[in-house]
Amino acid sequence: MQIMHGVAVNSGLHIGTAKIINPKSYNITHKYISEGQISEEETRFELALHHIEQDILNYLNSSDINESDKDIFRTHMLILQDPDINIRVINGIRDKLYSAAQAVYSTYEEIAKQFQDLENEFFALRVTDYKDIGNRLIAQLLDEVTADVIESDADIVYLMREITPSMVTRLGKNGIKAYCAEKGSLNSHCSILTRALNIVAIVSLPSVMTTVRDGDLLVIDGFDGILTINPDSRTLDYYHQLQNKYISKQAELSLQRDLNSETISGRKIDVRANIELPEELDAIVELGCDGIGLFRTEFLYLNRDKLPSEEEQTEIYRDLLSKMAPQPVTIRTFDLGGDKLSHLLNVGKEDNPNLGNRGIRFSLAHPELFRTQIRAILKASVAGSAKIMFPMVIDAADFIAAKSIVFECMQQFEMDEVAYDHEIPLGVMIEIPSAALCSADLAEVADFFSIGTNDLVQYTLAVDRNNDAVSKYYVQHHPAVLSLIRQTLSNAKAENIPVSICGEMASMPEYIPLFCGMGMRELSVNPNRYFQVKAIIRKCDEKLDEMVQNFDFSSSLKAVEKLIFQDMKAYYDF
Prior knowledge:
13% strand, 16 strands
């Protein structure tokens, strides 16, 4: 038995048999063509372009994936039709006397290398798209099968060095439930499609192709990013039980759908959902939750060649708000820095972008970019119940600066007679310790708070949550963190403004009773934890409230852990 750790692209658990797909190699002749063959090779290239374009158009017209995912293949169409790329291929045929296949191979390899050398996340994510198109053109020119045969067997787990968007769609069409890859990242086009098609996947598994053999039994743990190879009987039995338990638990918890999310004492606690991408919306609507507590808008700016227009953003927000109406939707303005947008804006490289010009700081430094997003949200606000939230706010001055830009947009709309929600709430993401410490001042000017525990923990404890070397120091229930949360709640209560928890802690069973006892009235959770969170809330009672409210959160970590993992365990342990 062997265990490998990677990046979980989509949550879930799958047990199946390994099937390796080796990188496709093409027999491209390096023999130069004659000048008399130039016209023929150019024609062959044009026909190959047309053939692949038609394939993509047929897929776009027949596929039932949503518009956001279809945009990925529209991007592939733009690559195919890029005049600069096609001129480079034609020049390779004319000037170097390459065959069409050799010219395509040479051109696309050069582009891929240029992108990889830029050390820019956006271009690194795009390399796979260019390789995908290049390989499809070469296969067409050589009259070879474009890709490996994919069996329609749900028990198979496909392994590959690097997956492409077209491969993801083929796996989904053939009913494949899981795959693993040596390369890959959470935000690539491939990963977005994987989540849309609900395929369990782990990527960034170095040497998986040499470690796993065809026919090996694999357990794909898409929750923790763990790949288990040929598990022993005890481990396999554990995962089978976990899989069965997960399925039955989901069925049991789904019975919570028609029940109120309130404590035994009758205190209502709104349970909302976090959303990353528009394709998650339909599933969230089906949950019947109390709205969306956090809509992350970063996807609008990533993996793109140009900035999203005001019209494009308006349409996305309008669709979201109308489908969720009358439930509220909290839209967080983009939380990005120059490291993610350097390909679109002329910004310098930062040594430490996580502590640099990101979030509301970046928005205020690029007011036109910020205004475009605010105008789009305001235009869409008439379709439902929208709330705007600003990330990475340090203190009241930050919030007031952002609020003033919103008011400028509103004044312009008044002059232009553009409809918008005049009472749209403006809130603050409490994720920096200074914001929590200044929460009394912030509560006087903001309409609501949302506590982002992920960043609040790592900034409070100075611990990178993605660094395994210091993972033991990333203690979400550290007294310092809980004290900041309680202080924020207290200051918000004094000004009578609502507070939500929207970080990972809000979805973790062991912390739900803690937040209920603190007096929290709103939780925004991962959609797949919605019913579980709701079930825990319905077990909370006055005894829990008294236990938590009388607890001294400045006490030792040991005392906090006794409270959470012993005294309150009965509330979340099903």
